[in-house]
Structures are given as structure tokens and as C-alpha cells.
Predict the 3D structure of the following.
Amino acid sequence: MQAIVGLSRGISRALVQGVVQRSQGSTEASQRAGVEDADSRLVTAVSGFPKPGSNYNIDNILKGQIGDDAYFVARHVDEWSTSDFEVVCRVETPRVEPEPKKGNADVIGVADGVGGWRAYGVDPGLFSVNLMKNCERLVKAGYFVGSQPSKLLAQGFREMQENKQQIIGSSTACLMMLSHTDLKLYTTNIGDSGFLVVRSGEVVHRSQEQQHYFNTPFQLSLPPTELQSEVLADRPESADQYEFCVEDGDVILLATDGIFDNVPDRLLVEEMAVVQHCKDSMRLQQCANSIALMARKLSRDPKFLSPFSVNALAAGIEAEGGKPDDITVLLATVSL
């Protein structure tokens, strides 16, 4: 993604093995904290590639950065149950409306830093990485509501605004929560990152792109004072919000536009349908790898009629082939 206004298979295997270990480690940490009873979860795998010409830094990727893209996978389960306080609350406090239940959710997210900031000497990845790190930290600390990803995104962005050392840049973002309370998926999406949910070989839920105009998506922005009048700056409240029930075995793809600009839905569905009901993290990882590799291959094909070129033609712009870009795939299956 460029607008502000107006690898080898061996490396891929090294990447995804490290990500799997990171994800498994967070699950093990939760179990050590005494939350083994939270059976509802997302089984996840991550894969991807930075755009051509970018440095492939495995350390950054394992920390949640792929080129200008960023991602996170987090889980929080409250160790305190309501029953621990029922008697005290009944006797000592007047009846009040219950607050939304906090914690108890699996949360995943992706963000795509706006590459156009390079023209101003700014690293576009800093914004997306910090936004996702803020959201991840809030989830792990339990400072979120398990059915309100929009508020989590807004709080993550607010902390960037309040940072003493200003982080300049812009980013799209998409967050998704599997609530352990009602077993629903809650999502918030701003810009052209997004999600796809597949069941029985069919798309049952899909996000829609938010665009000001072609190739200029909605974006959260923190510009320097001298550029505020020239830079698009959407509010977190502008994000689309979705909520829907899921079933055991549903397959979820959360990704940046490097996937959706290059791979038609029918090809994504073919790959995702293979891992329905899959609880094997390595099989899921292979599928994530396959989707990332397919996107990279199609992005480099000058003759392929990609979704990006179709949208360009619809906007009256002559275009052919794929769109080389950072590619981030966060694949998950629902385990209830």
C-alpha cells in the first residue's frame, strides 16, 4: 500500500516454524497461569513475505513485522470467575447494570503501514508495528472487552497519540476476537486489510474494503504538524464493525492487501477448504505457506488478471498483472 493522499522455500520454512513456536509458547504460558479450562480457541498459523527489494529479516518477522506489515496473536482468560464475588456483591452493593465482560478471548490482528511515507524519510513499518504491539499488550494485560475490538483498536491508537516520542505514519488495520463468553467473532476493519471466513467450501463472511478512491484506503494517521492538511487521517470510529456466530472447524483468513489484491477469492477458498476442522498446527502452517507463496507468485505475474488490476480497470486505470507488495497471512481454525 503506497498512497498517503490523493524468498526461498527454505527461508519460508524457517519463518513459519519460528512463528508456530511463538504461538505455541503463548498458549503454554496461559496454561501455566491456570486457565486450562478455556477450551474455545483459535488455532493459528502465520506466513508471509516482504515486498521485492526489501530486506528479509527473520528476527523482525518473528517479532510480528513483515516488511511494512505487522501482526499479532494473543489470548487472555481471566483467572477470576464471577462466582468468586457473587455473595459479596449481593450483600454489600446495590443492583447495577452489568458491565461488558472483559478478557476471555482469542484476539488476532494485522496492519499495513502506508509505504508513501518513505518519500518523507519515515519508516512506514514503525507505525503498523507499534499499533499492533499496543493492541497485543492490552489484550495480554486484560485491558479490553472481549466483544469490542473497535475499542481495542481505538485504545491502541490513542496510546500512540499520547506517546512522548511521536511515531509518524499511517496504517490500515483489522482486528478479530473470538469471545469465549458467547462464542461469536467480533471484528473491526479500517482500510483494505481484511478477513474471509470459509465453511464447507463457501465464503460465509467477508470484510469489505474501505477506500477514499482507488488504491487509497481509509487509514489511521499521525502526521507531523506541517503535513496535517495534506494527509488523510481517518478516525478509529470510521472502521467497519462485524459480529457473527461461528461453528467448530470454520476457517478464518486475516490478511493485508498483499493477499486480497493478488489472489481471487475462489483460489483462497480452495486452499482454505482443505483445512476445515484442522487442529494440527503444522497442517495449518502448510496451508498458510501455500497461500503466501501463491500470492507472491501471482503478484509477480505481469499477465495475470489480478483483483487489483480488475479494480484498476473499473476505476478507468489501465492495469495488468499482480501488485508486488508485502504479504501477511494469518490463518486460523475455530476449535469449540
Summary: Residues 9-32 form the longest helix (24 residues). Residues 54 and 73 are 24 Å apart (CA to CA). The chain is about 30% helix and 25% strand.
